[in-house]
Amino acid sequence: MHAIHSRQGDAARIRILLERMARDENRLEACLGRPLRDLDILEIGPGQTLERSAYLGLKNRVTGIDLDVIPHGLDFAGYARVIRRNGLGRLLKTLGRRALGNLCTGRNRARSGSRRLSKKRDPIADP
Fold first, then answer.
1. Which residues pair with residue 62 across a beta bridge?
2. Which candidate, 121, 111, 115, places its Cα nearest to that of 57?
3. What's the pTM?
4. What is the mean pLDDT of each run of 10 residues along the chain (127 residues)?
5. Long-range contacts of 81-90 (CB under 8 A, 24+ apart)
6. CA dihedral angle for residue 119, residue 102, residue 36, residue 123, rounded to 10 degrees
7. What CA–CA distance (Å, rounded) separates 8 from 14?
8. Largest CA-CA distance found in the chain, in angstroms, rounded
């Protein structure tokens, strides 16, 4: 039941995320004294959904590093790395999030104008 309720709140969650990112973008531009465009950005701990990286990557080059493996799509080798490096609990949480949230979240991203990230290279797994 929680999963159904959570998916219904995705549109609001994405709207709030975009509002906060726009606010933070304005703050960073004020600190830098220039637009937040065409920069090399390092995000430490982007998390499984990579939302901030996706937002910042619309106008910049973003590299995210995380202690957890973040597989993309049907990357079976990536999911095997999740088990080896981060354990079965992390794998189940990742698969559950993807199974319950991807369809609804993808539709809401399309409505909000944000883009899905393309598959990125894993510098540890793909040297």
1. 41
2. 115
3. 0.61
4. 58 89 95 95 88 92 88 83 88 81 54 48 48
5. 81/122, 81/125
6. -30
7. 11
8. 47
